[in-house]
Amino acid sequence: MRYLPLTIEDRRAMMAKIGVSEIDALFRDVPDGAIAPLSAFNLPDTQGELEVDRALSRLAAKNIAAGSAPTFCGAGAYKHHVPSAVDHLIQRSEFLTSYTPYQPEIAQGTLQYLFEFQTQVALLTGMEVANASLYDGSTATAEAVLMAQRVTRRSKAILSGGLHPHYAETVETVAGLFGEMKRVPVTPGSAEDLIALIDEETACVVVQSPDVYGLIRNLRPIADAAHAKGALLIAVVTEIVSLGLLESPGAQGADIVAAEGQSIGNGLNFGGPYVGLFATREKFLRQMPGRLTGETVDAEGRRGFVLTLSTREQHIRREKATSNICTNSGLCTLAFTIHMTLLGEEGLSRLARLNHAKAVTLAALLGKLDGVQVLTPAFFNEFTLKLSKPAAAVVDVLAAKGILAGVPASRLGGADDLLIVAVTETATDEDMAALAAALKEILS
Questions:
Q1: Which of 248, 332, 350, 379 is geometrically suited to a Cys-Cys bond with 214, CB 3.0 to 4.6 A?
Q2: CA 310, 316, 317 angle in degrees (round to 5)?
Q3: 311-368: pLDDT as tens digits
Q4: Backbone angles phi, psi at 65, to 5 degrees
């Protein structure tokens, strides 16, 4: 049954009000080649609910679920174990149905967990303040560049070639209108020379660590060079579990940290929703996008929580807003907070060490195979292989064998013979042995 709330007369009245004669006029700014005719989709005729259910079930059966096969895919989305307690707690009605906390008097629970989330993110990243989350890691990175442009009153951003290409594209789409976005090419497994490109017109340098090929980057020299020229360093983290083992970006001199929090509390979920993390130095607080929850006391001296900073277009005049983001990722944020609380500092550290140890084991195992070269010299739980055959074809063959071997770099604009492999705590010794044996067979 279709739900069409507007009648033909309603639509005619609205079109007349805005001065168009047909619906197609609303899409005149879309390039001709970007709109496909309905006939191009070869959709079936109308079917009943039972027939549609069967058709969708047949399509779903073609998928290989990450939980049902050895999985080594990463490149910004990681399969980690999420305790069942997380789902049970976030589905409580007071969490699942809560709306944005405009009235602190009736939103103390929501505000408290946002406050605790901010504290966790600040501690993880080594920064002084964190906001109540953004959409995801890529949009957090774009917001970080916009913030750096405001703080420095400059427009040029230098993007490391090790920055995830999807993040770089998001930055160019969102912040590219306000200045030059300079992407620097990178060779997988090595660090490009960013320092030589920093000048007095540079607003920020954006560096991901571990980068898209898994390489752990030393941020200190880049931070020092940026600061010497009056620019900011934006550190990007796509695998937040890595901060349970690696030195925090804040300790390495980063001014802003933009990260993806999916690895903690949030499953792969077919690509979303995820949760963007954002933290910075206190001196830049007024330019931070999104929301900030603060702790206070009420008229009777009791502890309470309020929205301390809401520099968004929903709250203040649009031209004064630091962000046009309309919401934080509330439920995903809560999942992150619960999982992090269950882990604790010690648990996160153990989880990170386990991830790294398994990755080292697999890299050593695969590095012994003919036709395989490990390119990443220093990694956390992800590394890049150079294969003697096209990586995409190898991945397809392994998928048919029930093994999700990784992400071909060609899908991210990289070379055809490169394969990005991620190893988390969910990979067993048997899984790693199966990958090694299958890869050996294919490349021999």
A1: 379
A2: 150
A3: 555 556 666 777 766 556 889 999 999 999 999 999 999 999 999 999 999 999 999 9
A4: -75, 140
Least confident of 49-53, 126-130, 161-165, 210-214: 49-53
Judged by DSSP in three states, 205 sits in strand
Contact 182, 155 (CB under 8 A): no
Measured between its terminal Cα atoms, the distance across the chain in Å is 55
Give me the phi and psi of 105, to 5 degrees please: -60, -30
> What is the biggest distance separating any 2 CA atoms in the chain, rounded to whole angstroms?
75
Q: Nearest-CA neighbor of 291 among 266, 312, 319, 321?
A: 312
- Residues pairing with 372 in the sheet: 387
Nearest to 129 by CA among 311, 333, 352, 289: 289
Sorted by where each starts, the structural domains of the chain and their CATH numbers stand as 69-80+346-443 (3.90.1150.10), 84-340 (3.40.640.10)
- The structure tokens 């292989």 sit at 385
- Distance, in Å, from the CA atom of 22 to the CA atom of 83, rounded to the nearest integer, reads 52
Polymer length in residues for the chain: 444
What's the CA gap between 129 and 224, in Å, rounded? 21
